[in-house]
Amino acid sequence: MLSVSRSIVLPESELVERFLRADGPGGQHVNRTESAVELRFDVMHSPSLPDDVRTRLLARSDRRLTDDGVLVIQARRFRDQSRNREDARERLVEILRGALVAPKKRIATKPTRASKMRRLDGKQQRSKIKQNRSRSWSHE
């Protein structure tokens, strides 16, 4: 059981782990042990996720999310399998907790009168600088 929040708990049966050889330092040891972990979680078909959380997760443009709605997390930060396994699970929980909170609606605002004036003043100054350049070129 992987606890995400009070209301969301993922059973082990929904998590698919695959162990593979990690790249990086480790000498000959790295070629023999499968210390990297690939954790897969099917967001699309998980009965443990509420619909709003599922929708937010699937709407994210996350490269770890496959076209089938499966979230794939690879952990190869550490040299031993157990720490990588723990790391992958922590990252999954972090992603799921991020989707629990609904994003705030943006309230459209109008620019203030002073900010409009500053913008127009800046445009006028720039225009004068460019006009002065063209005058100086024509006299040469």
Automatic annotation (TrEMBL):
Keywords: Hydrolase. Residues 21-37 form the Prokaryotic-type class I peptide chain release factors domain. Its EC number is 3.1.1.29. It is an enzyme of class 3 (hydrolase). Residues 106-117 have a biased composition (Basic residues). Gene3D superfamilies: 3.30.160.20. GO terms for molecular function: peptidyl-tRNA hydrolase activity. Residues 106-140 are annotated as: Disordered. InterPro entries: Pep_chain_release_fac_I, Pep_chain_release_fac_I_sf. PROSITE patterns: RF_PROK_I (PS00745). SUPFAM superfamilies: Release factor. Belongs to the prokaryotic/mitochondrial release factor family. This is Aminoacyl-tRNA hydrolase.
